Structures are given as structure tokens and as C-alpha cells.
Amino acid sequence: MAILVDENTRVIVQGITGFQGSFQAKRMLDYGTKVVGGVTPGKGGSEVHGIPVYNTVEEAVAETNADTSIIYVPARFATDAIFEAFDAGLRLVVCVTEGIPLYDEMLIHRKLREVKSMLLGPNCPGVISPGRSKVGLLPDRSFTQGNLGVVSRSGTLTYQICENLTKAGIGQSTVVGIGGDPMPGLTFVDVLKMFEEDEETKAVLLVGEIGGTAEEKAAEFIKQMSKPVVAFIAGRTAPPGKRMGHAGAIIEGSTGTAEAKMAALRDAGARVAETLLDVVKEVRRVLE
């Protein structure tokens, strides 16, 4: 058992005829993901790596019985692509695209209240259940199958930490990148709830960063979790006033600092790793 994606997940790629869509579709296919179709308006009837291309998401779902979509389209088209996936009734929509305007993200959140779909992202690396399915651009070699659930705001840190864990013999049940935008679809709390209910997941690693209040909200949920949680907060040494890469990494006054987040997580019972090198050590402790 895993969360969000497994060997039965059927994926369509929105924007499959573009460079990134085509490249990542091939990598997902090579990993074993069931990529059953692609969507590019005006290019229906063609193929990419043997994957049939459709003009609309509705047509692709009707022909392939897909339940999940991943979006590789430019920011100016991404909101419409997300809405189209919602309207087609897909269970999970993963949006890698970065640079979607905040006002559009507000419209997306309003739409999310009206549909049954889950949204991962935007501006996220996707999700992987190692050995079963990958929906996104995560590097295969960094992950191996196991019983640690991982949820993170940072794509690059996720790869680095999971590669350290894999080299140490610690595998993962599912790794979820929620993205670094101020208004993500699935939040830390949403994913923690899934890991708490997942029989295969024995412990959870949360990788947060400075800015916003997502980690403090996660801490409130961790208080009621039965499974151990390890946390790491990136950005402790970031100079004040420095513009960071993620849109959500904004410190306002005394809120959103690494110190405040680490204190909230410790108060909730999580083990907080001080450095990246400490993460493996703390995870090993809670799994033993």
C-alpha cells in the first residue's frame, strides 16, 4: 500500500508534445508508470513514444480510463489545464508548472472546493511510490522502496535527503513534493493524514523551509499522530531580507522563521534534525 500513486495509477500527460512533457513522459514510462495517454490541443491522433495523443482531457479519460494527470504546460496555460483536468473528474492532478500568478492560484483553490479532484502543486516535483509508480520529475536513483513516508516543500532537498536515506538502507513508502508556492493544493496536513492512515508507512519525514505557516499547522496535526515524525527546516542561515527561490518562502516579522517552526515541531513531539546530515540519524532512531 502507498498513498496517492501505486502500480494501478493510470496517467495522462497534459502538454506531452512539448519538450518537457515528452522527455518526462519517457522517463515515467521507463520507470514503469502506466502512462496511458497525452493531451495537446490540435495534435490529437498523433503519438509520442507510442503514447496516443488526444485533443482534450475529457477525450483522453474516456479512451484510456485514466485517473491521474500531470501538467507540463507554460504558466499562461496552466490554470486552464488544471480546470480542464478537474472538469474531467480526475482523482489526482499534479502540476509541475511554476510561475502561476497568485490570483490564478486563488481561483484554483475556489474551484477545488467544488470538485472531488486532489491537486498536487503547482510548482512541485510530483510524487513517487518507489518501485511502483512515479508521476513527476523526481530522479529515479534517489529512491528505494521502504516504509518511511516523506513530504516536502523543496524538490532539490527531497532528492538529496532521499538519496542519503537510500544509501543508508532506509527506503520510502511514498515521497510527496507539495511545492513551494504560497497556496499549494495538497498541504502538509493533508499528506500527514494520508501517511497516518497508511499501513505501510511506519514513520514520516517532513522537510519544511522558512516562510509561511505550513509547518506550524503541520505541528498542530502531529500532536495527534500515532506515528513518529522527523522534521528538517531549511533556511536557518538565510540572511534577513534575502529574496528566496520559492514564492512561499517569505518571512513577515517574527513569523515564518526557522526557529519558530522548529520550536513548534518540537513542542508537537517531532524529532527535529539540526542539519541535513542529522536527518538520516534521526530517522534511523525512530524506525528502530
How many strands appear in the DSSP assignment? 14
Order of helices and strands: EHEEEHEHEHEEEEHEHEHEHEH
Q: What amount of the residues lies in strands?
A: 15-25%
What topology, given as strand order, has the largest sheet? Answer: 3-4-2-1-5-6-7
Helix content: 25-40%
Which structural class fits the helix and strand makeup? alpha/beta
Rg (CA only): 18 Å
Distance linking N and C termini = 21 Å
Q: How can the largest sheet be summarized?
A: 7 strands, mixed
Number of helices: 9
Low-confidence stretches: none
What key phrases describe this protein's structure?
single chain; 288 residues; alpha/beta; seven-stranded mixed sheet; 9 helices; 34% helix; globular
Task: Give a description of the structure.
Helix content is 34%, strand content 23%. With 288 residues, the chain is an alpha/beta fold. The chain has a seven-stranded mixed beta sheet, with helices on both faces. It has a seven-stranded mixed beta sheet with strand order 9-8-11-10-12-13-14, sandwiched between helices. α7 links the parallel β12 and β13. The radius of gyration is 18 Å and the shape is globular.
